[in-house]
Amino acid sequence: MPRFRLSEIARLGVTTFVALLALVGAPATAHADPISLGGDLELAEPLVFTTPDSGIDCNGHTVRAFGISGALQIASHSVTIRNCVIRSALDGVVITSRAVGPGIVIENNDISVVTFAVRVSGATGDAQSDILISNNVLATTHDESTIDITDARFVTASGNIVEANPAGVGITALRSRDISIIANEVEPGPVIGIWVFQGQDAEVSRNRVTETNTGIYVQDTNGMTVSRNAVADTRAHGIRLGGVTVRGTITATNNSVARCRVGLTADTTGEVLFASNHVEDNEDTGISLGVHVGYNGQPIVIRDNVLVNQPEIRVGGSARVPINLTMTNNQHIDN
After folding, report:
1. Are strands 116-121 and 72-74 parallel, antiparallel or unpaired?
2. Half-sphere exposure of 215 (CA within 13 A, CB side)
3. pLDDT in tens, 292-315
4. 172-196 residues labelled b (16+ CB within 10 A) or e (exposed)
5. Burial class (CB in 10 A: 0-12, 13-18, 19+), 60
6. Residue 267's pLDDT band (boundaries 50, 70, 90)?
7. Which of 81, 112, 236, 272 is the most buried (most CB within 10 A)?
8. Does domain 40-333 match CATH 2.160.20.10?
9. How far is the C-alpha of 152 from the C-alpha of 123, rounded, in Å?
């Protein structure tokens, strides 16, 4: 089955290349040289990058891929996708399990598709060079996750503007390690703004989430930091820490949570630190500890928080063991 070098794609031109794709009915596989688009591109099959130092710079041009799952696919390290407008596909960019190593960059793209705008599926960066999803404008119409990170390691999503379906999630990290979700803006609407499930050693910081059902939800995750986020006007929880934690402290510090149903919630079996958060005008309560907190006798520390127009901290706690709870220097202000 024919394959095309990227230099050949550039030489053939957009119209001829698309006609050839339709003729052979197979994905184009990148071999060596990166693509630099000089016009719009319409794909009949996915464009797959399989070798290092390949990729595509669309220079602001549009890639259309009607009904294609994974319009642009990465199956190697050191691949860059930038400055692309991606439309009409089921999924925009898919980073597959064959992508292992440094130098994978998805940046400055405008992607509006059906299911996943960017999906990282089993891929792994390295400790010196995360897979980077940065400064993109991303939107999906289906009830999935706009950015989906699953079974991956060493991934950073930063500076993205994310819009999701009202039944979907803005950014999801499932069963992944060493994940950083930093300085993103989740637009109003989805069920959850940012969801981390069964993760390890993750960071969610400096994100802005408004008008979701739950702003940030960390579930069954070990060694987690949630810090300096701004969450407002959610219909349920602002920041929720839940599930089973067996290693490391789940930390929520220096966050601003306002006008949610409940500001900060801990309902996890593990060690929890709520510190230096600003919690204001939440409808039900500012800080709430659920029935699973302290289930394994882990320390729960609530200190140095500012609570404005909020009732006292609500404590549920486990029926099996006394709660190992410390509350110090929390400031209550009524306006």
Report:
1. unpaired
2. 32
3. 776 667 888 999 999 999 987 888
4. bbbebbbbbbbbbbbbebbbbbbbb
5. exposed
6. confident
7. 81
8. yes
9. 5
Distance, in Å, from the CA atom of 254 to the CA atom of 277, rounded to the nearest integer, reads 4
Contact yes or no for 156/182 (Cβ under 8 A):
yes
CA distance 219 to 196: 6
- Sketch the domain layout of the chain as residue ranges: 40-333
Strand 285-289 to strand 153-158: parallel, antiparallel, or no bridges (unpaired)?
A: unpaired
**How many other CB atoms sit within 10 Å of the CB of residue 298?**
19
Instruction: Select from 43, 34, 176 the least CA-distant residue to 103.
Output: 34
pLDDT higher at 166 or 26: 166
Helix residue ranges per DSSP H, the chain: 6-12, 14-24
Give pLDDT, residue 25: 41
* Averaged pLDDT of the chain: 87
The whole-number average pLDDT for the span 183-208 is 96
pLDDT (tens digit, 9 = 90+) per residue, 236-265?
A: 999 999 887 767 788 999 999 999 999 999
Question: Which residues touch 23 (CB under 8 Å, ≥6 apart)?
Answer: none
Query: How many Å from the N-terminal Cα to the C-terminal Cα in the chain?
Result: 72
DSSP string, 285-332: EEEEE-TTTTTT---EEEES-EEES--SPEE---SSS---EEEES-EE
| Residue 49 near residue 76 (C-beta atoms within 8 A) | yes
Q: Given the structure tokens 């793209």, which residue do they identify? A: 109
Instruction: Return the DSSP state at 128.
Output: T
